[in-house]
Amino acid sequence: MVAETKLYDSLSISPTATQDEIKKGYRKAALKYHPDKNKDKPDAGEKFKEVSQAYEILSDPEKRKVYDQYGLDFLLNGGRQAPPPPGASPGGPGFAGGNPFESMGGGMPGSFGGMGGMPGGGGGTRTFHFSTGGGTKGGSSNFSFSDPSSIFSQFMKSGGSGSAEDDELYNMLNGGFGGGSSGFGTSGFGAESGSGRSRRSRQSDAGLARRPPSPEVTVVEKPLPVTLEQIFKGTKKRMNIKRKTYDGSNKRKIEERVADVEIKPGYKAGTKIRFKGWGDQDEGGVQDLVFVVAEKEHEFFKREGDDLRYNLEITLKESLTGWTKTITTIDGKQIGVSHGGPTPPGFEIRYPEQGMVKSKKLNERGDMIVQVKVKYPPSLTAAQKERLREIL
Taking the model in full, what pTM does it have? Predict the structure, then answer.
C-alpha cells in the first residue's frame, strides 16, 4: 500500500511497476509531451516537466521507497518532518519523534542530494506541478528536482531510446536541448534571487553527497566502403556484427547480429550511420556502433562535392588532330564526347546535371566534368622528329 499514486499516474503505470516499466512509461510520456514536438501546445511543457520529475524519483529505489511510504510532500520538505500516520499526531508512535531519518542527522539520506541538492523551499504549497523555487526557511533544506531537459537527455544517452524511431526523434530534438537551457524557467534550478550565490556552491558548502555523473556512452566506428554507383542509387548493406556482452550468469560472451545499413542517395564520405546500443557491453554501459561511409576508388570518376570528374585519356595524335569518344555516366547512360583539336592538356568539358545526386534535393544532380589527359609517346625516331619539325 502506497501513500499516494500521483507520480505513478503521471507515467500511466501502477505502484507495483518494475524499473523497466517505469522506463517505458517515461519514454512514452516524454516523447509525447516534448516541447519541440508540441510548439503549438503551451501545456505540453508543463506535462513534460511533470513526467521527467516523476521519473527522477521513481527511477531511484531509495527515493521511491520514501515516496511510497510518506508521499510527495514529505520528499519536497526534505524529510525534515514525517507526516503522521492515520489517527496519530506528529511525533507520535512509529515516527521516532516525527522524523524517520533522525539517525541520519534529521535529513534525507545522502543520495537525495544527488539530483541538484536540497535547496531551500520556503513558502507556498507544493503541488504535483513541482514548483520547487524559494529560499531557505528556518534553516531547513528542501528537496529540489533536476532540470527536466537534463533528465530526458541523460535518459536517452544512457540507452533509454528503445527503438530506432525513438533514437531518430531524439536526434531531431537535439538530445533534449543539449542538456542546457530548457525554457522551463530558473525557479528551483539556478541561483536564487537575493542570495548572491548559486545553489551549487551552497550545496558544496553544506557537504551534501551527490550522485556521480553517469559515464558517457562510448562509440565504436567502423568504415563502410561503398562504390559511387551505390551512393548514386542508394542501397542497403547487410553487415555481420560480433559484440561482447554478458549472459544471464554475468559471464562474457560473443553475440552475433546482422545490421541492415541504409545508404541513402547522395551520401558523402564521412557520413555517420549510428546503431544505438549495438557495440560492446562494458561496465559503463553499452557502446553505440557507428558506420562511417567511405567511397571506394573509381576507375574513371573522382567525386568533388556533388560533381563527378571523369578522366579521359587521348593520344598525342588525337590531341593535335581531333577526337571522338563515348563515355558512360554514373547512372549507366552513354554519351558522345568530342573535340576538333588541338586539345591542350587539362582541357575540360562540363555536362550539367550528369553528376552525383544531391542528398537533400534528390531531383537535382551535380555536374559531370570530363577532363582530358594527353598521353605522350615514350619515344620518337629521328625521322618522326624531323617530320614533326616540318609540320609544326
Answer: 0.43
